[in-house]
Amino acid sequence: MERERVSGAGAAAQSAGGLMGALGTRQAASLRPAPQRQPIDIERLLVWVYRDQRADVVIDRGAGLYEAEAALDGVAGSYVSVCGCAAVARIQALGVRVDRQGRDAGALDPDAEVIHRAVMQLSDRVAGLPRSRLVIQNAATASRPDAMVDEVPRPIPILNREGRPAVEWLDKGRRFGVCRVDYQPSASAILAAREEYAAWHQALRLLAFVLQREPRVTKFHALSPAAPAAPWLEAR
């Protein structure tokens, strides 16, 4: 299981710089939100992109892409009006009516397209999955990775075939014995869950950093996540 750790402003800036380069941003915009850009928590913004706009589904199927972008992605884009049979066919293909705001040339909000492409630049893996998929899965369900905040390993007796605790007797009279136990959840399972949460939170911080400087996002100014970085520490 691979992990990428970004610690400190320097490492974050370095990673963000590479991501911004991949997105094609040549100049970093001001950190101050423009008057027309609505400040929004990055977690809420991603929920809008993936639960409401379903950007991953729309782009994967070629809808919402403009002609040049669709050609680069190797998919056939279709440009039709938002009413009539074509609209019905699009809804049937996507399984949802996309909440559209903006131009009629595509089925997806332009801001959602840009944000989705930024998410897809998260190429490292967490628990065997791309970190981008971790972000998308949680945003699509408006959830967070389970950090197992209140969990600690607890001894659970190992049972015999009769469903009773398996006892290993230490004397022939069966007066003294030991009961084997298993610890659930295991310490390794708790650690893995918290590492996954930390990777998700780190990805949100990086995305907020990048999107604040992305001039193609015109409606929203992404704020750092309000979600705690290590909720298992705050719970103590």
Tell me what portion of residues adopts beta-strand conformation. Answer: 5-15%
Q: Domain count, please report it.
A: 2
Which percent range fits the helix content? 40-55%
Element order: H for helix, E for strand: HEHHHHHEEHEEEEHEH
Q: Shape from CA axes?
A: elongated
- What is the C-alpha radius of gyration, as a whole number of Å? 24 Å
User: What's the total count of β strands?
Assistant: 8
N- to C-terminal distance? 28 Å
Question: Could you explain how this protein is built, in words?
Answer:
By secondary structure, this protein is α+β, with helices and mostly antiparallel strands. It contains nine helices and eight strands. The strands form four sheets. The protein has a two-stranded parallel ribbon. Strands 2-3 form a two-stranded antiparallel ribbon. A hairpin with a 2-residue loop joins strand 2 and strand 3. The N terminus is likely disordered.
Give the tags:
236 residues; single chain; 11% strand; disordered N terminus; alpha+beta
What topology emerges from the helices and strands here?
Layout: H1 8-23, E1 38-41, H2 42-52, H3 55-60, H4 67-73, H5 84-94, H6 110-119, E2 125-126, E3 129-130, H7 131-140, E4 154-157, E5 167-169, E6 177-179, E7 181-184, H8 187-211, E8 220-223, H9 231-234
Parallel strand pairs: 1-8
Antiparallel strand pairs: 2-3, 4-7, 5-6
